[in-house]
Structure formats: C-alpha cells, structure tokens
Write a structure and sequence with these properties.
alpha+beta, Phosphorylase Kinase, domain 1, Transferase(Phosphotransferase), domain 1, 2 domains, seven-stranded antiparallel beta sheet, two-stranded antiparallel sheet, 13 strands, about 35% helix
C-alpha cells in the first residue's frame, strides 16, 4: 500500500502507479493542503492531503500519521487509500490519498442548521455519537488516543455515518509523566497539536507526576456532543473573545436550559465533562449509556452505523 514515488505534471498525479487528475482545491491548514482529485483508472473522487515537511521532525510526524491510518480498518475511521513522500527541492511533502466524502464535516452540518436557527434532533445526535464512539473504541482498544477530536475532524457520509479523520495528533493512550521537564514537553506538545477549545483540562497544566490517558478524548467527545446540541462548542466563544480557556475548563460545565433534549442526554454529556479525568468514563461505558438512551428516542436497539 505504500507508494515509492509520485509525479505531478500538468495536473496529473501518479501515486502507487495509479494516475489521478487534479480537480480543485478543497482547503488548507497551517502545514497542509487538501485537493480534490479524480482517479483515471476508476473515475472516483478522492481527497489528496499534502503535508509540508520542513525538516526531519516534520517528515517523522507525517510518517506517523500514515502509520496511524494503516493501523485501523473500521467503518467509522477514514481509511487511507495510498500514500507517498514527494521530494520538493530541499523539502518534502507527504501525500495521503483519502476517500472524498461529499457530505462534509459534522461542523458544516451543525453550522448549516444554526444559520437557520435550527439544531440537530436527539435521534440524529445519538446516531452520530454512536458511530464516533465505535471509532474511538477501536482506537482506544489498540492503545492509542486521537487527541484532537472536534466537529471539523468528523466527516459525515450521506447516511450520517461519522468518519474520524486527521490522525496526525494521535499517540499512545497512556502517558506517564515523571518530572517537570517531561510535564512541560507534554504541555507544549498539546498546545501545538490539540485544538484549544476542545483540549482536556489535564493538558493545559500538566502535573509533574501524573498519568494522562485516553480519557482526554472523552472530554473532547463531550465538547463535540455539546456542539451538536447547542450549535457551538462550550469553549468556542470563550476562545473567540480572547478569554482564558485554560481557566474556564477548570470549572464544571453549565448546560444551557432547553426543552429539545432528554435528561438522559444531558446526564451523558455531564459525565464526559468532568474536570478530573480519573472520574471520566471510558469509551465502553459511554457506549453502554448510549444503549440505554437510543431506544427512548427511536424505539429500537442501538449500534446503528
């Protein structure tokens, strides 16, 4: 599955001996670009993610993202179709060929409804949440954590099947911190790789003697659920106003009063947004709680994907 070379000429890209036509740009981030390409061999559309690697560490991080994709084959984790490293003068680009999901991200779905002063139904939230949890459980079961779960990192297929993407911040689930120097290293890494308004409290001020585990994802998952319920993450506005997110996450989350959602869903949200990560549930417990909620909403057993 690993391509050894790739060529770009007049909009024609070759990866793993297959040719793809450049169609248009889809977006760009700090160190990456995403293009829409069409496979000459199959006529299908793909998303080509190009990661700029400025140094050896950059190449190592890009290779790690590729390796993380290769670890998983699950209907709720975006699969990697092919990849390669492309030399650009003195620099390199990592190319990740991914399926193109025309439904867009969970955030785009939330935002489109919010613009109409509407919100996701509880049934739809539970369906999407269930799929996200199944993907996360697969990641956690293999000893890893996503570390950057947020609505823009969840794609939605036409049937609302969620796909976890952007695995570039993934690392081992369990991080044992011994000493202030290591604590600062972890804290600095989190500041660079974990989106601030979805970052777990324990990653803001890392204790010099602690164990950080995969339940950083549970906090982020709670923020995603809150966003699905209320149209924005619980700390998005705090960040946009320039106030301290690090300070805000140290307090218990206040859930806005509403009549749209059940007490069961609100209770599930509260259980995930616990400041002390040792008191947060593991993903298997969240899935168990979901099983009790789903029949209330749609009259059938859960684990739809």
């Amino acid at each position: 599955m690993g391509a050894t070379f790739c060529i770009c000429s007049r909009g024609l890209i070759t990866i793993d001996n297959k040719r793809y036509l450049f169609v248009q740009k889809l977006g760009e981030g700090g160190f990456s670009y995403v293009d829409l390409v069409e496979g000459v061999h199959d006529g299908r559309f793909y998303a080509l993610k190009r990661i700029l690697c400025h140094d050896r560490d950059g190449r190592k991080e890009a290779m790690q993202e590729m390796e993380m994709h290769r670890l998983f084959n699950h209907p709720n984790i975006l699969r990697l179709e092919a990849y390669c490293m492309s030399e650009k003068g003195s620099k390199w680009e990592a190319w990740l060929l991914l399926p193109f999901v025309k439904g867009g991200t969970l955030w785009s779905a939330v935002e489109a409804l919010r613009d109409k002063n509407a919100f996701l139904s509880e049934e739809r939230i539970l369906h999407i949440l269930n799929g996200i949890c199944l993907g996360l459980k697969t990641i956690h079961d293999q000893g890893y954590a996503h570390r950057d779960l947020k609505p823009t990192n969840v794609l939605l297929e036409d049937d609302d099947r969620p796909l976890l993407m952007d695995l570039g911040s993934m690392n081992h689930a369990r991080i044992e911190v011994t000493g202030s120097r290591q604590a600062m290293t972890v804290q600095d890494w989190a500041a660079q790789r974990c989106t601030i308004s979805y970052r777990a409290p324990e990653l803001f001020n890392v204790d010099s003697n602690c164990v950080i585990d995969e339940r950083t994802d549970i906090w982020s998952l709670g923020c995603v659920v809150y966003c699905m319920m209320f149209g924005e993450g619980p700390y998005d506005m705090i960040f946009q106003k320039g106030d301290s997110v690090a300070l805000a996450v140290q307090n218990n989350l206040s859930i806005p009063s509403n009549t749209r959602y059940s007490r069961g869903l609100e209770s599930l949200l509260s259980s995930m947004m616990v400041v002390n990560h040792q008191e947060r549930p593991h993903i298997s417990t969240v899935l168990s709680q979901l099983e009790t909620l789903q029949p209330i909403v749609d009259g059938q057993a859960t684990t739809r994907i």
